[in-house]
Amino acid sequence: MKMSKQFKFQHRLQQIIFYLLLLAVVIAVAVLSHRFTFQSDWTANQRHTLSAATSKLLQNLDSPVTIEVFISPGHQYHSAAESLLKRYQQYSSQLTVSFIDPVTQPQRVRELAIQQQAEMVVSGQQGQQHVFDLSEQSLSNAIIKVSRRNLPELIFITGHDERDIAGETAYDMAQWQAQLLSTGFAVQSLSMTEAMQQQHNGKNVVLVIASAQQTWPESEVLQLQEWLQQGGNLLWFSEPDTDIGLSAITEQLNLSRLPGTIVDPNAGKLGLEDPRFVIVTDYANHPVTAATSSVTLLPGAHAFQVQGAETDWQITKLMQSQSGSWSELGDMNIANLDTLALDQDIDITGPLLLSVLMEKRLSPDQQQRIAVFGDGDFVSNSYLGTAANLELAMALVNWLVADDDSIAIPVVKTQDSQLILTDQQSLLIGIGFLVVLPLCIFVIGISIWWIRKRR
């Protein structure tokens, strides 16, 4: 078939236009890929993606934060550190990251007292924090601590046989204190009189009553009432069968304590022999419980009731016991707890209110927040690490100081497996792909050629 000159011209023109369009598409893709990035994390637990809480924290950074990573260029953790910090830098221009070789800069190592490879020093307007592991939780907590303008303060009231925030016994709360300090809280223990004499300079301050066992003097009760009337925040951990003279405070908050200790027969489903362990699965829709990933465990709790329908407070009934529970008012034989049974004539049937959150807006930029719990054991050294107790405790204090953006910085737990190969295994796999597999294909091809030739 003979083609005319006009057809040849049109054919060549089409080819030129096609190649020009193809070149334009390639250039456009190159420009777009340089300006925009897209990533997709297919791991089972999104291990390579920052949590929503961390990304929001980074986007809201309003002051510079520098991160110095002390690691040798060829170290096995260098690529992991680089990958983690790239994810952080994607969300904020306030972050400045530098990698420092400890061998070439020994003076800087001595200045910062660096202890190990891959150690990070996070610096901001609130000082410096050392991070020793490549985890999102540790790094995000360090950024929170150095970037907060005013460190929120928790004042643990003493003088009435409360739990010791620095105590190492099972009853005390040293483990919780360590978590609070690492996430940017100032923590101190003071008497009620000392706390009222302090000048807080506009800081977010929360008074904490941690399971007081002795009666409060009337003068200190009046001081606490004054603190609440002035708009102060309060976290109150109460205990069953302890009358510490704070009935005026419960009346001021329109609350009443229910007598007895809650018994939860559902505890046996988790292998717990003591039915005084209350398993909480019923949460209100609130940011505090939204940050709580699973059930919480309250060992030895009592219940509250909210009094009165009309109040200035916005009240959230945060946690309730399950329907099969009750408040035991009869004699409780510790030696035979498995014989406990509901007495309809005496006991108070569940579900029962375990904790209450109260909020009141005092001005456009100030609000008062109060949390009352019928148990303090869940923040003790014995039970803080049980179930989601730690998540609840940390979310609670962040809510009380109105730092809602920091309520949830989760711990990312590895669910999917990583394949780590030795040098010999990598060599064998390489030989398999480069030699054995092509040889097999060659043999199959020769066999097929030989069979067809014989036919």
Report on this structure.
The chain is α/β, with parallel strands linked by helices and 455 residues long. The chain has two domains: 94 residues, 3-Layer(aba) Sandwich (Glutaredoxin), CATH 3.40.30.10; 256 residues, 3-Layer(aba) Sandwich (Rossmann fold). Helix content is 33%, strand content 21%. It has twelve helices and 19 strands. An eight-stranded mixed β-sheet has the order 6-5-7-8-19-18-15-12. Strands 2-1-3-4 form a four-stranded mixed β-sheet, covered by helices on one side. The chain has a three-stranded antiparallel β-sheet with strand order 10-16-17, with no helix packed on it. 31% of the residues are buried.
Q: In what order do the strands lie side by side in the largest sheet?
A: 6-5-7-8-19-18-15-12
Measured between the Cα atoms of the first and last residue, the distance is 38 Å
Structural class by sheet pairing and helices:
alpha/beta
What percentage of residues falls in helices of 4 or more residues?
Answer: 25-40%
Rounded to an integer in angstroms, the radius of gyration calculated over CA atoms is 31 Å
Anisotropy-based shape:
elongated
The total strand number stands at 19
User: What count of domains describes the coordinates?
Assistant: 2
Can you tell me the CATH topology of the largest domain? Rossmann fold
Residue runs with pLDDT of under 50 for 5 or more positions: 411-416
The average pLDDT score comes to 85
Using the 3D structure, state the CATH architecture of the largest domain: 3-Layer(aba) Sandwich
Strand count, sense and barrel status of the largest sheet are: 8 strands, mixed
